[in-house]
Specification:
The structure holds 2 protein chains of 2 kinds. By secondary structure, chain A is an alpha+beta fold. Helix content of chain A is 29%, strand content 47%. Chain A has 2 domains: 101 residues; 173 residues, Porin (Beta Barrel). In chain A, the strands form 2 sheets. In chain A, strands 1-2-3-4-5-6-7-10 form an 8-stranded antiparallel beta barrel. A two-stranded antiparallel sheet of chain A has the order 8-9. The relative contact order of chain A is 0.12. Chain B has 1 helix and 9 strands; from the N terminus they run αβββββββββ. The model of chain B has no long low-confidence stretch (mean pLDDT 88). The chains are: A alpha+beta, B mainly beta. At the A-B interface, strand 1, strand 2, strand 3 and strand 10 of A face strand 4, strand 5, strand 6 and strand 7 of B.
Chain lengths: 291, 194
């Protein structure tokens, strides 16, 4: 038979393990409201749901919210009137609970600014006139505030142009990273951001079979895009970024005619660029300043 | 009959030693934040482009940030090929990345993503070129593996790495390769166990 005390123990175990009970509660709510047709099982499930809600109340009380101090408050009567209203209320509760957790996290564990992170990156270059290529590099980040971070990077990208020419890009630059959702830090997994910045760009094209046939150019570029951190621990994250880099300089072009490779400098600024998809591994080393 | 008895006794010894090791491992859990793990072994590989087997000396160092997350750096020194028609004179590589671990007791199954770099040089004779030059190529690799921590100093490891990349010097060659590593590794807890 159903035992509410056992259910409470079970929920506490699961919830303590994953820190927030959001996912568990949400799944339970769905099961309770839509997964049962028989009246008896529905009654049992509602009891179970009540246990879950009571447990959440304990958490809220712990967090200092004074909304539900007593189980006989009118809120509970409303809650168990019917299953649909309970689902809506649970969703609202989950939202509140999430806000509570994130605020606790922001204030206690993660001071917002001054963090210096260091990491390595791998970049896939696509939609380039030369073709697709793979790159490797590194970056460090300095976080200026809870919503603004800066990304200082350097990378090397090598592109195979029609099996005849090697096109190498060297980028040294910086980006400003803006977080639209301030509270999305660890233990939240995803922390989305938008970014834009500038970099110095060196391109060298060399004929593979004849390394003396080569041309290079220095230039400048701007880039902008979107991305997200995957916060895997308090100090470690993996970040996926997708940004378009626009070259503000003359381009080099490889011409293959009559089985001869000619590398030419196009005399005008053609505003060409490439899409850079980057995965980076970052570790917070230290805090440079404190408020 | 004697042979069968010998086989049985050997199997019994192996099983009992495994159980003893397992009991010891369970008594002293070593998988914890701050665990440093190092490995060194010979690694065979299969290169998809020329369908050849290369041999590497493989070294790695891994640090567990949490029980489920680690950062790792690994190096492969190309020690030669099994045949004389090898495409590359050498193909050394270096990787840095992180692993996500699925642990139970001292069993540790992991998945990882490691960007890297390789230093390659084509074999001039086998590629019909007069002269070849060495070059650096970016790589990316995915890793699947398993560790069994015997005690707080040793572990068995087994991993497979799939590498993607291109050699773009002299003649274009794909660096897609599958590497297999296994052996005995050393580990040390740098933080006091709770």
């Amino acid at each position: 038979m159903f035992n509410p005390n056992y259910a409470l123990e079970l929920v506490m175990k699961v919830t303590n393990t994953i820190k927030t009970s959001v996912c568990v509660d949400f799944l339970l709510a769905i099961i309770v409201n839509y997964g049962n047709n028989k009246k008896s099982s529905k009654r049992l499930c509602l009891k179970y749901l009540k246990t879950v809600i009571e447990f959440n109340c304990v958490i809220w009380v712990k967090q200092g919210t004074d909304l539900f101090r007593h189980q006989n408050c009118p809120f509970f009567k409303l809650l168990f009137m019917n299953s649909k209203s309970s689902l809506i209320i649970i969703l609202f509760i989950l939202f509140l609970q999430g806000v509570c957790f994130s605020q606790v996290v922001n204030k206690s564990k993660f001071p917002s600014s001054g963090w210096l992170s260091f990491g390595m990156r791998s970049t896939l270059s696509t939609f380039d006139g030369d073709g697709n290529g793979l790159g490797y590099g590194g970056q460090f980040r300095i976080k200026l505030s809870s919503r603004v971070n800066t990304d200082w990077f350097g990378d090397y990208i090598s592109i195979n142009v029609s099996d005849k020419v090697r096109s190498e890009y060297y980028h040294i630059g910086w980006s400003v990273v803006y977080y639209p959702f301030e509270q999305y830090q660890y233990p939240r997994l995803l922390q989305p951001y938008i970014l834009a910045g500038h970099c110095f760009d060196y391109n060298k094209k060399t004929e593979m079979a004849n390394s003396s046939n080569s041309k290079d150019r220095w230039g400048s570029a701007v880039q902008a895009g979107i991305g997200t951190h995957f916060n895997l621990s308090e100090k470690f994250d993996i970040s996926f970024t997708c940004q378009y880099m626009l070259h503000l300089t003359n381009e080099l072009d490889a011409d293959f005619s009559n089985n001869k490779v000619t590398i030419v400098d196009i005399g005008e600024n053609t505003l060409q660029g490439h899409l850079l998809s980057t995965i980076s591994f970052n570790y917070r080393l230290c805090r440079l300043w404190k408020k | 009959m004697q042979i069968m008895e010998k086989i049985k006794s050997i199997l019994f010894l192996l099983l009992s030693s495994f159980l003893i090791l397992n009991c010891e491992a369970q008594e002293t859990p070593v998988l914890a934040p701050g665990l440093l793990s190092s490995q060194c072994t010979f690694t065979p590989s299969h290169m998809f482009y020329d369908k050849q087997t290369y041999i590497y000396i493989h070294g790695g160092l891994e640090c567990y940030i949490t029980k489920k997350l680690s950062v790792t750096g690994e190096i492969y020194y190309n020690a030669g090929a099994l045949s004389h028609s090898n495409t590359f004179d050498y193909n050394h590589s270096l990787f840095f990345g992180s692993n996500w671990h699925f642990t139970k007791a001292n069993n540790d199954f992991f998945l990882g993503l490691h960007p890297g770099l390789s230093l390659t040089k084509l074999n001039a004779k086998n590629n019909n070129i007069t002269e070849t030059s060495a070059g650096i190529n970016p790589l990316i690799s995915a890793v699947v593996g398993y560790n069994f921590f015997i005690n707080k100093y040793f572990h068995f490891f087994l991993d497979t790495r799939y590498i993607l990349g291109d050699h773009n010097y002299d003649i274009h060659k794909s660096l897609s390769e599958l590497k297999f590593s296994a052996g005995l590794g050393f580990n040390l807890n740098t933080k006091k166990l709770q």
